Amino acid sequence: MKKKLLGVLFGASLVLAACDGNGGDSTETSSGGVDPEKIVNNKCTSCHGGNLEGGMGPALKNIGAELSKDEIRETIKNGKGQMPPGLIEGEEADAVAEWLSKKK
């Protein structure tokens, strides 16, 4: 029973962490483009750490040295391990994948 309850609580925390919680703040730059750093701050740091140093999820601060932009995009799209798929989609996912691929 305890394991089931812990599983439900953990699942609920993942769902809540996935919510951007930005109160409707735009993730666009003033020039109209997508701001990947803001997206990461809103949707990724609760699991990957404020400085992408890792936490519940793996560290991403040097992920570009390990994975290509396309590999990062696929992980964002399909999820991996306990990361659910589709937390970031479309143009935002592309921008985040490119931004993270430069972290070496």
Brief rundown of the structure:
This protein is mostly helical.
| Rg | 14 Å
Structural class: mainly alpha
Q: How is the main sheet built?
A: none
Strands, count: 0
Termini separation? 44 Å
3D shape: globular
In percent, how helical is the residue content?
40-55%
Q: Uncertain segments of ≥5 residues (pLDDT<50)?
A: 5-10, 14-24
What's the SSE pattern? HHHHH
Strand content: under 5%
Mean of residue pLDDT? 83
Q: Number of helix segments?
A: 5
Structure keywords:
49% helix; mainly alpha; 104 residues
What secondary-structure arrangement, pairings included, does this model have?
Blueprint: H1 2-18, H2 36-43, H3 45-48, H4 69-78, H5 90-101
What does this protein look like?
It is a single chain. With 104 residues, the protein is an all-alpha fold. 49% of the residues lie in helices and 0% in strands. The protein is built from five helices and no strands. It has helices at 2-18, 36-43, 45-48, 69-78, 90-101. Residues 5-10 and 14-24 have low confidence and may be disordered.
